[in-house]
Design goal:
There is one protein chain. The chain is α+β, with helices and mostly antiparallel strands. It is about 30% helix and about 25% strand. Helix 1 runs antiparallel to helix 2 and helix 6 packs parallel to helix 7.
Length: about 325
């Protein structure tokens, strides 16, 4: 076939809200082959920088963005420069939405139908600063506003997750799939508390944790949105949700990996996933409805981003 499909690999491996044949892609398989090759190369190059820096004093050169809980380091900035430069050399017409560039300008780029790279050079910056090993490079590619290629690389733990739409998901070259847990009472889910510290948002954040914990086996927080989502993809976790994370770069790559592993990616209230919404629920093939029902019953906090508009385009 000369054109790649936007559809996922199976009935459970799709983004909620988009059915079969919902969009057609104008990017050829040959171009996607090249994108995949470049993405893997730049992720490994950035990972080497992280691995070298996490054991040195370089990681201590930190700045705060929105609060003392929202950090950026020289390594974040160096890795993003490496990734963007390498991709632009090969694909000068492609668009980019990267964490550090957006933080510097204060403006979130508009997502179009054009091929758009979403890059988080160091997901888990606080972990990186403190030497906690859940740190990863995220390189995702969206076409027609939805993720079609994703790489999440944790160089500290030596885990390289990769997925391309229609081709499944792998961890270090081995195929992965989501868990088979079908009951919430037997599930282990993950979340994060985010960077907002106003009391109303903190109350809402812990309200959701409490509501799910009362019904599930246990809860985990590793400090990296993408590491949590890849945990769902390989079956370590049964579900993950977060509201108010930094931006689409946190979830684009991992969303592709989860769906290609047979999981589901949707809005925490059960609607379609919008990669730009700063809201995500990732689950195995069975727990999406129950988890979204519980989460939608907790009133949002003042800093929580609102659900996507019903007529918005799902990703």
């Amino acid at each position: 076939r000369s054109e790649a499909s936007i559809e996922g690999t199976g009935s459970s491996g799709r983004f909620a809200g988009l059915g079969k044949g919902a969009a057609a892609m104008s990017v050829s398989e040959e171009v996607l082959d090249a994108c995949e090759e470049v993405a893997e190369r730049v992720a490994r190059e950035a990972g080497a920088v992280i691995l070298n820096a996490i054991g040195s004093t370089k990681k201590k050169a930190t700045q705060t963005k929105t609060s003392d809980a929202d950090l950026v380091t020289e390594t974040d900035q160096e890795c993003e420069r490496i990734i963007v430069r390498r991709i632009k050399e090969r694909f000068p017409d492609h668009r980019f939405i990267g964490e550090e560039e957006t933080s510097e300008t204060g403006v979130m780029p508009v997502l179009t139908d054009e091929p758009t790279w979403m890059i988080d050079p160091v997901d888990g910056t606080t972990n990186f600063v403190h030497g906690f090993p859940f740190v990863c490079v995220c390189v995702g590619l969206c076409v027609r506003k939805r993720p079609v290629l994703g790489i999440v690389y944790n160089p500290v733990m030596g885990e390289f997750f990769k997925a391309r739409e229609g081709r499944g998901a792998t961890l270090n070259g081995n195929r992965i799939e989501v868990s088979g847990t079908s009951e919430l009472g037997q599930a282990v889910f993950a979340t994060e508390i985010g960077t907002k510290r106003d009391q109303g948002t903190i109350d809402s954040t812990y309200g959701r944790v409490s509501a799910l914990t009362s019904l599930a086996r246990s809860v985990r927080m590793c400090g990296s949105c993408a590491c949590n989502m890849t945990g769902v993809a390989c079956g370590r976790l049964d579900g993950f949700y977060e509201l108010g994370f930094g931006g689409p770069w946190d979830v684009a790559a991992a969303a592709c990996i989860v769906t290609e592993a047979g999981g589901k990616v949707l809005d925490p209230e059960g609607g379609p996933f919008d990669v730009m919404s700063r809201r995500v629920l990732a689950t195995n093939a069975s727990l999406d409805a129950e988890m979204s029902r519980v989460l939608s019953g907790v009133p949002p906090g003042p800093s929580d981003p609102p659900p996507p508009k019903p007529n918005g385009i799902a990703c």
